[in-house]
Amino acid sequence: DSEVHFSGVTHVLKGAGTDRDDGKYLTDIIQITADGNSSTALRSDGTVWTWGGNASGQLGMESASGTRVPVQVEKSAADIAENAEGFYLKNIFQVSAGNQYVLAAGLRGGETVAYGWGKNDKGQLGVGETYSSTRIPQLVKNAAGDGVLTDVRQVAAGAEHALAITKDMTGTGTRINHFQLFRRQCSIFLTNLCKL
């Protein structure tokens, strides 16, 4: 079982929807990230769980309320309609928390993509437009804004900006896509940074 350590104390996280005394816990955590008032955990099964404050929708659920127990991040209605494999985000391999928003990299329909949810007042979610926030994960758009950003290898969430590393077209390096203020997106090519 996975344990979470902070302030020198070990805590095992109780799973959402469980009775505090039933012995069920959130286990198999492979990554954890946090912002100022919420936390996000990635489990080995590719599911994402969040808890804490939810002022900007960073918990990835329809409810505007925060929670003290982990809840599983939901899919968007479009994702549910397109892929009827349940109501929760899955097949995720990496997460990163920014200032009241979260990014996730995962597999969708055979391609690696990025999702963003929560605060978006600076366009940090990379969804092609700027608005205050979204409570449900949205797919990050490509540089042209006409499709989904694919070949995502890693995401990083800053305070008000975000980055994604993608495999380049030649397969010899990586490309960093900076998607803060999406309409003015820039890409920097890094060659031979790593072989993917």
Radius of gyration: 17 Å
Number of strands: 14
Largest sheet: 4 strands, antiparallel
Listing every helix as H and every strand as E from the N terminus to the C terminus, the arrangement reads EEEEEEHEEEEEEEE
Q: Largest beta sheet: what is the strand line-up? A: 3-4-5-6
Structural class: mainly beta
Q: What number is the mean pLDDT? A: 78
The outline comes out as globular
Spans of at least 5 consecutive residues whose pLDDT stays below 50 are 5-12, 17-22, 169-174, 180-196
Distance between the termini: 31 Å
Determine the strand fraction and express it as a percent band. 35-45%
| Helicity level | under 10%
How many distinct helices? Answer: 1
Report on the structure:
The chain has one helix and 14 strands. Mean pLDDT is 78; it is low at 5-12, 17-22, 169-174 and 180-196. Strand 1 (4-6) and strand 2 form a beta hairpin. The longest helix is centred in the middle third of the chain and has 6 residues, at 77-82. The protein has 196 residues and is mostly beta strands.
